[in-house]
Design a protein that fits this description.
Strands 1, 2, 3, 4, 5, 6 and 7 form a 7-stranded mixed sheet that branches. This protein is of the alpha/beta class. The mean pLDDT is about 90. It has one domain: Maf protein (Alpha-Beta Complex), CATH 3.90.950.10. The longest helix has 22 residues. α4 runs antiparallel to α5. The two termini are about 15 Å apart.
């Protein structure tokens, strides 16, 4: 069983590889800001689920026009919620620094949307072809992070292109004191949730294992 990942995220790829799955990576090309603006007011969970769906559907459209595939397409999106406001990728160093000054010593919610499309050749048109859900983790940041540490972290460039301006699997990990919920949600791909979605299609998790550990 092949898994097509509608993402070029190194963290999502590393998570799947560590779990014994070598996915096929495809970029969706979705304009996230335009899609959210067009959708109107959304809750944080609705936002990440919408973007996950749009990414999976965009890749599905690409594959229909190309080689036939036999497997599942997974779209994912993540955003960080603090004080009821949703934060995506900061992109710019001053933005990332301002976010860290606001979130140190506090906790917020990292939402990761997942959308799974059944693209198996054997799938009946009458069966459910796509499902999605959201995994959320509560992240607590250390209260004694200095301004100098924030500046040094931002200078690495790592927080600029990740939701919430932080990572748990790389340089940002030392500044996080607690995670409540699924830790893989913080990486942007919940293995437990993906397994549950696959079970909805009567697909056993081990059938995706295609990578020697």
């Amino acid at each position: 069983m092949r898994l097509y990942l509608a993402s070029t995220s190194p963290a999502r790829l590393a998570t799947l590889r560590a779990a014994g799955i070598e996915p096929i990576l495809l970029s969706s090309g979705v304009d996230e800001e335009a899609a959210v603006a067009a959708a109107g007011p959304l809750t944080p969970r609705e936002t990440v689920l919408l973007l996950a769906r749009l990414k999976a559907e965009a890749v599905a459209d690409q594959l229909v026009d190309g080689e036939p595939i036999d497997g599942f397409i997974l779209g994912g999106d993540s955003a960080f919620e603090l004080d009821g406001r949703l934060y995506g990728k900061p992109h710019f160093a001053p933005v990332a620094r301002a976010r860290w000054l606001k979130q140190r010593g506090r906790e917020g919610k990292l939402h990761s949307g997942h959308w799974l499309i059944d693209h198996r050749a054997s799938t009946s048109p009458a069966t459910e072809s796509a499902i999605g859900d959201v995994s959320t983790a509560i992240v607590t940041f250390a209260s004694n992070i200095s301004d100098a540490e924030i500046d040094a972290y931002v200078a690495t460039g790592e927080p600029l292109e990740v939701a919430g301006a932080f990572t748990i699997d790389s340089l940002g990990a030392a500044f996080i004191t607690e995670i409540r919920g699924d830790p893989h949600a913080v990486v942007g791909l919940s293995l437990a949730l993906l397994r549950q979605l696959l079970l909805r299609f009567d697909v056993s998790w081990p059938t995706l294992w295609n990578r020697a550990l």
